[in-house]
Amino acid sequence: MTSQAPAPPRTTYITLPQPDQADELVMVSLGLLDVGYRFGGTNPEAGLDCSGMVSYVVEQVSGQRLPRSAAEIAARTRPVDRAALRPGDLVFFNTQNRPYSHMGIYLGDDRFIHAPSSRGKVRLERLGSPYFRDRFDGGRSLQPVG
Fold first, then answer.
1. What is the DSSP letter of 6?
2. 46: Cβ contacts below 8 Å, ≥ 6 apart
3. CB-hemisphere CA count at 13 Å for 94?
4. Cα(124)–Cα(39) distance, rounded to whole angstroms?
5. CB of 44 within 8 A of CB of 38?
6. Structural domains in the chain?
7. How far apart (Å, rounded) are the C-alpha atoms in residues 14 and 74?
8. Residue 66 and residue 54: Cα distance in Å, rounded?
9. Residue 44 buriedness (CB in 10 A; 0-12 / 13-18 / 19+)
10. Confidence band, pLDDT 50/70/90 cuts, at residue 142
11. What is the pLDDT of residues 25-77, one digit of tens each?
């Protein structure tokens, strides 16, 4: 009689209910351009931080609540290679000497939107800019596999 090791637990990733909602993430996030930064901020009226911006957009589009921190969101979303990023995917950065300390929403064409504390407003950036290229921690997707 041979015994088999138990299967590893399956990771349950947060996904969007509808594949076309990834495009909606992009559109809703673009509507937040120039919203002011606020540490811990979770709504545009009071200001947003990076994870608050992403959480707000996902909840507006899908009704789903994400965990509060960028690192917790990274842990609950499916990894995707940088070369395979699609609009609506999430991008993560090490900006505070710890992994997944900052995040944004990928827009396509090497661009993403985020709520940075510097210069204080939601804005667009390039993944390939030296600052973000050197701090890129990975991409994650809310899009269903397939």
1. P
2. 38
3. 8
4. 19
5. no
6. 21-141 (3.90.1720.10)
7. 10
8. 8
9. middle
10. very high
11. 999 999 999 999 999 999 999 999 999 999 999 999 999 999 999 999 999 99
Which residue is associated with the tokens 């992009």?
26
Rounded to the nearest integer, the mean pLDDT of the chain is 92
The whole-number pLDDT of residue 4 equals 58
User: Is residue 24 within a helix (H) or strand (E), and if so which, with residue range?
Assistant: helix 21-30
**pLDDT value at residue 145:** 81
Kindly report the backbone phi and psi dihedral angles of residue 47, in degrees, each rounded to the nearest multiple of 5, phi listed first.
115, 160
Q: Which amino acid is at 102?
A: H
Look at the pTM and tell me if it is higher than 0.85. yes
Question: Tokens 């827009």 belong to which residue?
Answer: 107
Residues involved in catalysis: 50, 102, 114
Helix (H, G, I), strand (E, B) or coil at 42: strand
Q: What per-residue confidence (pLDDT) applies to 10?
A: 57
Cα atoms in the 13 Å half-sphere on the side-chain side of 56:
25
Integer Cα distance of 10 and 26 in angstroms = 29
